[in-house]
Amino acid sequence: MEPAVPLAPEPPEVLDELYHLFRDYFDKAEKKRRWSIREDVPWDQCNRSLNPAIADVVETFCSVELYLPDYLSKLIPQVRQNRGRAWMLANWGYEECKHSMVLEDWLLRSGARTEEQVSDMHAEVYEHEWNLPYGNARGMLVYTTFQELATKVHYARLREAVRREGGDAALERVLQLVAVDEAAHADFFRRLLEVYLRYDREGTLEQIRKVTNTFRMPAVYSLAGSMHRVSEINRLDVFNENLFIETTYNPILAKLGVSRKELRQKHFKETLVPLAGPNARP
What's the whole-model pTM score? Predict the structure, then answer.
């Protein structure tokens, strides 16, 4: 964990470009991607005999989503002077809160968990505070880009596992809706990185190199039974290190136009766009 440092003032042209990217994202989401928890999921088609391991993984993912107050309270102060990034985090928070609610609803409606068990899940999450893995605002943007695409892969592959285990139309629809949101998040954050790479390639590469060398998915290791949770994710072939390389690391670098050879260089320095204040570099 690193201390959070507010983002230093950025050039007006960078702020304008980032905000326009957010408005484009927001307008498309309003038109094409908004969905209703109550109306867009066939709740009467829950499979009450589904493999309990599926519910265990859903509970893990729901728990990670429940750290939303920590995510927002730590991330927004980093970028409060950057409207595009701050407004996106507010919008992202709205979409992520739907994810936690819809996963929790499935746990209850399917009979996989009781109200008391869900209450215990909340209590467990709120006993532990999530902290920024990187205090650098651009480092967190890199982290979020990789994390969002990895999360999309988690949900898409869990949907495949549900089908292998006998199917559950309600859960499959939930996972489809959530995966589409996560893919949109990853695409947006990657577009922000493309802006920073144009204005300050060396400083941005430094953060990409650091984050990709130390990347871990958020919050899972703060939960009780974390090793069991990870082993179940692996056993159901939902995610593992090789999948991260194949489905997340390589595709993002390819779209950014960044090669592994370029990342191996270690003489990067911040240049045109301050990352997070003069003393924020590790």
Answer: 0.88
